[in-house]
Amino acid sequence: MKFSVIVPVYGVEKYIARCAESLLNQHYADKELIFVDDASPDDSMTILQKVLSRYSAQHVTILRHTINQGLAAARKTGMEAATGEYIVHVDSDDYLEPDALDILAQKAQETDADIIGMDFYFDWGECRKVYKGRWSENAQEYGRLILSGATMPNMWAHVMRRQLVVQSGIEPIVGLDTGEDYLFVSKLCNYAHRVAHVERPLYHYMQTNNASYMHVLSEKNIRSLTQVMNELSAFYADKKEFINALRAGQWLKKTELMMRVHKSQYPLADEMPAALPIDHSTMTHAQRLAAPLVAKRHWLALAIYSQWYRALNELVQVVKGRRKTC
Fold first, then answer.
1. What is the per-residue pLDDT across 158-207, written as a single tens digit (0 to 9) for each?
2. 8 A C-beta contact, residue 150 and residue 134
3. Cα(68)–Cα(70) distance, integer angstroms
4. Of all helices (H) and strands (E), which one includes residue 251?
């Protein structure tokens, strides 16, 4: 069983060596590593080449974009070049446990699943937190869990059968670089027959790269998130069994977005669709308090509340030692 491991590379000179070494040192041998240079402006590729020079026996492909096209385009380029039975996504500032592919291969052989999820670490370098999420062997039910926000949708947390991706026609949309996981994985579940799950953290989701997509919310990021929700609303418009999950996801994502952006960005973020009444079934307690302010457009109150929440959350992160870099 062959794995195609796809790694987009852009602006990660501090992290790419650790990521590449974690893949090259995998115990599992039947794999191809596909690095996609998305016109990285720093020394990421030079560092990667130095690492690769020490592992010349392995099957490694480097693909290059002549101009930066974004995360979704890099993933799409990698997926089009993949030849393995299963596709594994790894972000270049993250890394895998040494036996991750062994365990994923064993689970694939045992279950013949189309999609295999895994537990993972939120990793701050000197401290970690295990994320388990919720899951179901039933692909449709698992799709609803992802759509509602009850479990995280990240592409790197899901190994997917390549033939499923090809036959479904689901692919990353170039230009949608924020929220693309949510769109891709939830839609792909509609075409899967079976989902499996590895109840052990195999992936290190690093929280120390402040330049990553998840740490920066520009106008482009906000518009991308809004387009993702519009795409999902259109995709599930005639699928009544997903309406409740979609509504919960709409309110969770919109409230989460509004609590993160600056108040000057509220009108733009408010363009994200969320059908009334409010569904707060998958929200945290803090989000449930903010949702009515979002719904009623009480911008001043929302700004004060969000600022207070961010300050409190930052204090918690400092106390827990999560602001130290690795």
1. 999 999 999 999 999 999 999 999 999 999 999 999 999 999 999 999 98
2. yes
3. 6
4. helix 243-260
208: its two tokens: 């120390």
Burial category of 42 from C-beta neighbours within 10 Å (exposed 0-12, middle 13-18, buried 19 and up): middle
Helices (H), 82-218: 100-111, 139-148, 162-168, 180-188
**Which residue from 179, 199, 173 is spatially nearest to 73, judged by alpha carbons?**
173
Contact between residue 82 and residue 32 where contact means Cβ atoms under 8 Å apart? yes
d(CA 261, CA 219): 10
Type of residue at 303: A
Q: Any alpha helices (H) in 149-218, and if so which ranges?
A: 162-168, 180-188
Residue in 134, 125, 84 with CA at minimum distance from that of residue 105: 84
| pLDDT over 90 at 106, yes or no | yes
Task: Check pLDDT > 80 for residue 324.
Answer: no
What percent of the chain clears pLDDT 90, i.e. is strictly above it? 89
Q: Where are the alpha helices (DSSP H) in 53-197?
A: 71-81, 100-111, 139-148, 162-168, 180-188
pLDDT band at 213 (very low <50, low <70, confident <90, very high): very low
Amino acid identity of residue 55, one-letter, is Y
Alpha carbon distance, N-terminus to C-terminus of the chain: 34
Over residues 17-36, the pLDDT tens digits come to: 999 999 999 999 999 999 99
| Cβ count near 325 (within 10 Å) | 12
Q: Please tell me the distance from the alpha carbon of residue 157 to that of residue 84, in angstroms, as a whole number.
A: 18
Q: What is the mean pLDDT of residues 140-153?
A: 96
Give the separation between CA 35 and CA 98, rounded to whole angstroms.
19
Whole-number Å distance between alpha carbons of 86 and 165: 10
AA identity, residue 147: L
CA distance 156 to 87: 10
Q: Which two tokens stand for residue 86?
A: 């299963």
